[in-house]
Amino acid sequence: MKKPGSRHLVDPQLLGILEVFPESELNEQTLATARAMEFPFPTDPVASEAVSMVRRQVPGPDGAPPVELLVYTPKAASSARPCIFHMHGGGYVAGTAASHEPLHRSLALAADCVVASVEYRLAPETPFPGAIEDCYAALAFVFAEAAKLGIDPQCVGVMGESAGGGLAASLALLARDRGQYPLAFQHLIYPMIDDRTCVLREPHPYAGEFIWTAQKNHFGWASLLGVPPGSPEVSPYAAAARATDLGGLPPAYIASAALDLFIDDNLDYARRLMRAGVPVELHVYPGAFHAFDLFPDSEVARTANRDSLAALRRVLHPR
């Protein structure tokens, strides 16, 4: 049975985005084109001048190449700052940390923090556990070099959008289980956390029609896992929703969109975190679809970005 259309549910201010990003498939033939696509993130000249950026090559996982880490630091004199450890989105198969430079300069300035963004290896060339181990290696460097980087190791948290949010959630699990690097928070924006969404018998009738579709989701997960999505052996460090024990994780901020393919996954993960005693701040934005917040010319996107920044400021600079 064909899913009903959801265009009538889209916030009218977001409809123009759908004309810019027509329907398309993601597969081996179109992957290079998808990777070449760039979002025109606006540049803030004030943030460009006020925030420095350095590229660091940090030791990678055992037997793997070094990992590039982009570190953004406000130039104004300050004692050690809290740190947002960020992972970019892209369905585990696309995206770059470097492309987020305008956003990260603005975030470092607005939140008065260090932003460390990791350039992890992509699937399918590097399947699980390559990306998550790259992130863990870069996190280890942040803690080991915190003093030199001007970072307060008592306030380091993870953040990401989409696949980056999935990596952030999985990294929170991995850091908890390895017991080496205590995280202060996890900030998850429409996180991609459950491969089993690809094989649901009754998928959400109105979610996932736009931007990130079920077809793209299946390709992303299959590329990352190297096995069919929904297979029983999938690790929670690949798909955080697979974790059976969510206790002892850092406080979570979870934001999702009502028409996002991941909405049910995100709501369920928030519910399970709360039942495990983890503080959760949950936001759902009506009329919005995947990645809507990257296009700030709508009130719902501006609201989402304000909410996100306010939550980060509260956890980075508690009073």
Structural topology:
Elements lengths: L14 H6 L10 H6 L8 H6 E8 L8 E8 L6 E7 L13 H10 L3 E6 L10 H15 L1 H4 L1 E11 L1 H16 L7 E4 L24 H12 L26 E6 L5 H13 L4 E6 L13 H18 L3
Describe this structure as you would to a colleague:
The protein is of the alpha/beta class. The chain has a single domain (16-316), classed as Rossmann fold. The protein is built from 10 helices and 8 strands. It has helices at residues 15-20, 31-36, 45-50, 101-110, 130-144, 146-149, 163-178, 214-225, 263-275, 299-316; strands at 51-58, 67-74, 81-87, 114-119, 151-161, 186-189, 252-257, 280-285. Strands 1-2-4-3-5-6-7-8 form an 8-stranded mixed beta sheet, sandwiched between helices. Helix 4 links the parallel strand 3 and strand 4 (114-119). Helix 5 (130-144) packs across helix 7. The protein starts with 14 loop residues before the first helix and ends with a helix. The model has no long low-confidence stretch (mean pLDDT 96).
Residue-averaged pLDDT, rounded? 96
Q: What Rg, in angstroms, do the CA atoms define?
A: 18 Å
pLDDT < 50 stretches: none
Class per helix and strand makeup: alpha/beta
Quick one: CATH superfamily?
Alpha/Beta hydrolase fold, catalytic domain
CATH fold call:
Rossmann fold
Strand order of the largest sheet: 1-2-4-3-5-6-7-8
- Characterize the main sheet: 8 strands, mixed
How much helix is in the residues? 25-40%
Q: Judging from the principal axes of the Cα atoms, what is the shape?
A: globular
How many runs of DSSP E, i.e. beta strands?
Answer: 8
Taken as a percent bin, the fraction of beta residues is 15-25%
CATH hierarchy class name: Alpha Beta
